[in-house]
Write a structure and sequence with these properties.
By secondary structure, the protein is of the alpha/beta class. The chain has helices spanning 21-30, 58-71, 87-98, 122-134, 142-149, 160-171, 217-230, 235-255, and strands at 6-16, 34-45, 54-56, 77-80, 103-106, 111-112, 115-116, 137-138, 177-184, 190-196, 201-207, 283-284. 36% of the residues lie in helices and 22% in strands.
Length: 285
């Protein structure tokens, strides 16, 4: 039997609202990849619900890492996302250091629509750059890209040239591969854009705009992206596969008229991750 890739997912577990581990585990499992969750917090519902109960698991992360080191576990990827405290930055760095051969993906979860999430302090946002500095791949949305760069969130559509400059600046912080999601461009298209520092290539995938926003879309995109890369796809195909499945799930959810807080109705769509369709919509720019 072929060896199954293993991903250590350093993320929260929210009971209500599909996001973080409740998206990552089923999506990567469907792609044939084992997810080993390292929960940063347990929440009754994600923070978008306004009211929620949260249990911070900062103290849990150190013994988990020590146990994995004792077992001599090998991970193919360390994937960090929602963090509950600034101290957890240190624990993520320890995970990255403990598994130097693992691919390091940082989804710098901090906010959306120009605002930081309710639980994200200035200190936590400020220290996110420490994870970005050691990452191989980062997947910020436009809000998170602006926070990382110390820029104002663009209230209007941005030019393709400006977003390319942002991609390069983010890569200069450390990561070889940068993908920014949810970018409204001046030509009227909502797009996902990527940059590969190794060969200087820029990539763009236009998304069909749906007049709705749902929790967990970034988690879904990043999960399919890393699953695709671990299975051997290049960056363009990985962006295309992740964008295609995320957009499809958004459209299914929109047709069902579900509240945005419930997240994407993807459970019945996981079979599409096995699609044989040719992915050629992601274009070099």
């Amino acid at each position: 039997m072929r060896e199954i890739k293993k991903v250590a997912a350093i993320q929260d577990m929210s009971g209500l609202g599909r996001c973080s581990l409740t998206v990552i585990i089923p999506v990567l499992s469907a792609m044939g990849i084992q997810v080993c969750p390292v929960p940063t917090a347990v929440l009754s519902a994600h923070t978008g619900y306004g009211e929620f109960v949260m249990h911070d698991l900062t103290d849990f992360m150190v013994p988990v890492l020590e146990h994995y080191k004792k077992l001599r576990v090998d991970f193919d990827c360390i994937y960090s996302g929602f963090l509950a405290s600034a101290e957890q930055i240190d624990h993520c760095l320890d995970f990255f250091k403990a598994f130097p051969n693992a691919l390091k993906l940082v989804d710098p979860v901090m906010g959306d629509d120009g605002r930081a999430y309710a639980t994200y302090t200035k200190e936590l946002c400020g220290r996110m750059g420490e994870l970005v500095a050691v990452a191989d791949i980062i997947t910020p949305n436009l809000t998170e890209a602006a926070i990382l760069l110390g820029e104002q969130y663009p209230k209007n559509a941005v030019s393709q040239e400006l977003i390319k400059k942002w991609l390069v600046r983010l890569s200069e912080m450390g990561a070889d591969t940068v993908v920014i999601t949810s970018v409204m461009l001046e030509d009227g298209n909502m797009a996902t854009v990527g940059y590969n520092k190794a060969d200087g290539s820029f990539w763009r995938l236009d998304n069909k705009l749906v007049p709705a926003h749902y929790s967990g879309t970034g988690d879904m995109f990043a999960s399919v992206l890393i699953g695709s890369i671990l299975k051997g796809d290049d960056l363009a195909v990985a962006i295309n596969r992740a964008g295609d499945f995320t957009e499809h799930s958004v459209r299914v959810t929109y047709r069902c008229k579900r509240p945005w807080t419930e997240g994407l109705m993807f459970e019945g769509e996981l079979g599409k991750l096995f699609s044989d369709r040719k992915y050629n919509d992601c274009v070099r720019i």
